């Protein structure tokens, strides 16, 4: 019997459309002899849908029309412990369960999909899933937490200052002084937990800093301000594996059309029709990155360490900024569900997309087996052990 894989995509982040592209690309490349694919599309208003028609990108042009016809579903756990895709609302007569699920495969970039929220839902259902777990997803998504962990692990990150937007509003002068002293201009201001360059801007002076913080505050409560590297090379490297074994892909060099990569650069840049139809695949890039063997090795080694340091699993892409003047490599960020799942960095490394997807699903099943050896609960009922009434906390020793 084929393994039933539920590919979950769409979602409520700013990268909704990119997720649709990444997921449909992956589905097209999955080994259909081995895997039965159940597409699960989450609309921007959080309704789940399934059906063959969700597999054709053309259908998304008329989204209203598509969703008015598509089958609404929920993913749920049945009494006998099966995880299923079920019609919503449940029909009064006839079958409500459309399929069982053996493995879930989240392909949602950004908030609620890449940040541990969806992963937590899958944990509660107790279904194996591809990619990072709750903790690695959430730490990878928060640029401040991620930097703290890397800094404490002696992995190279750029200097930064962070604050809540409310703290800024209370005393902008104090923060401006701190930023000037610690980082000096120019700086880059970012919302702490978004992707795709949304809400990010550069500031050369106090006035611009204020504007940049205002912009970032529209997207997140937590803001991070970083030293801007002026003469930089941007290089990305993908890592595949888990806590036991990892490998690094070839590196790509990313070429932005402006001072930094915008949303349009990333997703609409090279596509012939000018639309965002190709996902990360269309970014202007050079593969392999032209940074020499030494730097390539260095980037790959740091990439592998930063993957394992967060406890990642599956495939991630670690983005680097090389400061050409200082000749130093810095981790910029980790993407735990990268655009197009970074397949284009594995094909030149000799791993076809089909094989990579196979490895990802197998890693999900391996994690399930590894965890199966751990104890999650103790088989006893504390209440049934008590004699002579409840003592509450008074008599308890834990
Ligand atoms: N410290 C920095 N110095 C110079 N450019 C930067 C810096 N941080 C980010 N950038 C530019 O901004 C882009 C987006 O920043 P990034 O942190 O990767 O955010 P996102 O999560 O939105 O991709 C980067 O690809 C890079 O071009
Ligand atoms: Mg980035």
UniProtKB/TrEMBL annotation:
GO MF: ATP binding; D-alanine-D-alanine ligase activity; metal ion binding
Enzyme class: ligase
Catalytic machinery residues: 15, 196, 340
Positions bound to Mg(2+) 2: 333, 335
Cofactor(s) the protein needs: Mn(2+); Mg(2+)
Cofactor annotation comment: Binds 2 magnesium or manganese ions per subunit.
Gene3D superfamilies, alphabetized: 3.40.50.20, ATP-grasp fold, A domain (3.30.1490.20), ATP-grasp fold, B domain (3.30.470.20)
SUPFAM superfamilies assigned to the protein according to its UniProt record, in alphabetical order: Glutathione synthetase ATP-binding domain-like, PreATP-grasp domain
Stored InterPro entries: ATP-grasp, ATP_grasp_subdomain_1, D-Ala_lig_Van_CS, D_ala_D_ala, Dala_Dala_lig_C, Dala_Dala_lig_N, PreATP-grasp_dom_sf
Catalysis performed (reactions): 2 D-alanine + ATP = D-alanyl-D-alanine + ADP + phosphate + H(+)
GO BP annotation list: cell wall organization; peptidoglycan biosynthetic process; regulation of cell shape
Residue ranges constituting the ATP-grasp domain according to the UniProt record: 147-362
Coiled-coil region(s): none
E.C. designation(s): 6.3.2.4
Pathway: Cell wall biogenesis; peptidoglycan biosynthesis; Glycan biosynthesis
GO CC field: cytosol
PROSITE patterns (UniProt xref): ATP_GRASP, DALA_DALA_LIGASE_1, DALA_DALA_LIGASE_2
Similarity annotation: Belongs to the D-alanine--D-alanine ligase family.
Annotated PANTHER family: D-ALANINE--D-ALANINE LIGASE, D-ALANINE--D-ALANINE LIGASE A
Task of the protein: Cell wall formation.
UniProt name for this protein: D-alanine--D-alanine ligase
Protein encoded by which gene: ddl
């Amino acid at each position: 019997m084929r393994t039933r894989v539920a590919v979950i995509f769409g979602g409520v982040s700013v990268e909704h459309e990119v997720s649709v592209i990444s997921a449909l690309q992956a589905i097209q490349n999955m080994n259909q002899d081995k895997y039965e694919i159940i597409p699960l599309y989450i609309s921007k208003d959080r309704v789940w849908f399934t059906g063959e028609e969700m597999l054709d990108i053309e259908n998304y042009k008329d989204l209203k029309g598509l969703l008015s016809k598509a089958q609404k579903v929920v993913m749920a756990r049945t009494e006998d412990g099966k995880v299923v895709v079920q019609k919503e609302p449940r029909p009064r007569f006839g079958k409500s369960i459309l399929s069982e699920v053996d493995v879930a495969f989240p392909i949602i970039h950004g908030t609620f999909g890449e940040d541990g929220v969806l992963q937590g839902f899958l944990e509660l259902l107790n279904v194996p899933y591809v990619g990072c777990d709750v903790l690695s997803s959430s730490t990878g998504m928060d640029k401040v937490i991620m930097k703290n962990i890397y800094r404490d692990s002696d992995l190279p990150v750029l200097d930064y200052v962070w604050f809540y937007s409310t703290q800024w509003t209370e005393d902008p002068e104090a923060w401006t002084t701190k930023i000037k002293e610690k980082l000096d201009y120019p700086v880059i201001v970012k919302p702490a937990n978004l992707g795709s360059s949304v809400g990010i801007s550069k500031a050369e002076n106090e006035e611009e800093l204020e504007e940049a913080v205002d912009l970032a505050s529209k997207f997140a409560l937590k803001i991070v301000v970083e030293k801007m590297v002026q003469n930089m090379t941007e290089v990305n490297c993908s890592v595949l594996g888990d806590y036991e074994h990892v490998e690094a892909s070839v590196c790509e060099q990313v070429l932005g059309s402006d001072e930094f990569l915008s949303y349009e650069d990333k997703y609409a840049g090279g596509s012939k029709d000018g639309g965002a139809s190709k996902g990360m695949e269309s970014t202007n890039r050079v593969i392999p990155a032209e940074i020499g063997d030494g730097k390539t090795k260095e980037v790959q080694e740091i990439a592998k360490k930063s993957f394992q340091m967060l406890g990642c699993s599956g495939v991630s892409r670690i983005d680097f900024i090389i400061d050409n003047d200082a000749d130093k490599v810095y981790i910029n960020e980790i993407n735990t569900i990268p655009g197009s799942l970074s397949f284009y960095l594995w094909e030149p490394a000799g791993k076809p997309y089909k094989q990579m997807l196979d490895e990802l699903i197998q890693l999900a099943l391996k994690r399930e087996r590894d965890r199966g050896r751990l104890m999650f609960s103790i088989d006893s009922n504390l209440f049934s052990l008590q004699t002579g009434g409840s003592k509450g906390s008074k008599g308890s020793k834990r």
